[in-house]
Structure formats: C-alpha cells, structure tokens
Amino acid sequence: MRHTAAVLGTLAATAALSLATTAPAIADAPERATHSHPADGTLVLFLDANGPVEYEDPVGCITLPEGPTALFNDTNRRVYVSTTSCAFHPRVVDSVRPGEFGSLPGNTRSLVVRS
To answer: Distance (Å, rounded) from C-alpha 61 to C-alpha 22?
Structure first.
C-alpha cells in the first residue's frame, strides 16, 4: 500500500510540475499568433488591361492578377514585391515604401505586407 501511495504521489508531483512548466508557453501562444495585424490604408495595383485594383487594409501575401505594372502604396507599411506566388516562399525583388509609387517587374506574382 505504501508503495502504491508513493508511486501515485510521484505521478501527481510530476503532472503538477509538467503543467506548471507548460502553462507559460500556452499562455504566450496567443500573443505570438496575433502578429498579423493589417496595414492601415490601401494598396492600388495598376494592371495592363484593366483599371486599378484596390486592396483595403492588406496583410500577409497577396496573389496578384495577370499583368501588374505599378503599385501605389497608400498604407503605413512597406510592401515587398515578389516574383513567386503565395504558395511558395517569397522571392523579394523590390519594395515600395508607404506613400510611394513603384513600377513592378513583368514577372511579379505577389505582394507581401508584413506587420
């Protein structure tokens, strides 16, 4: 009986210690997960064939339609120009600062707005 009580006591102490050491990591997880805050403002994308396309309060990777030629960044964040689609790791070739206009290379596939 003493042996069973000692084993149960050890298991309970181990479980309590395990929960105590993982609780801070669990509590911090939502803080790390909320890193994607949208930019304030609008990205205006100019296309070859059609009129401009606007993206309100953009965040993350934006897959572009065919024929992007230029971008006006009317947000509070720098926008990174990538020659790969959002399905792949971005290959950044240029960036457009807030309040600036930039021409886009013919092989531009996506824009990345980081928080």
So the answer is: 32
Which residue(s) pair with 108 in the sheet? none
Q: Among 5-9, 79-83, 98-102, which is the least confidently predicted range?
A: 5-9
In the chain, domain spans: 1-34, 41-113
CA dihedral 44, 93, 112, 105 (to 10 degrees): 30
pTM above 0.70, yes or no: no
Hey, what are 18's tokens? 């395990």
In CATH terms, 41-113 corresponds, of 2.60.120, 3.40.50, 3.40.190, 2.60.20, to 2.60.20
Residue 84 and residue 60 in contact, taking contact as beta carbons nearer than 8 Å: no
pLDDT of 30 reads: 33
Distances (CA, A) of 97 to 49, 56, 79, 80, 102: 25, 16, 6, 9, 9
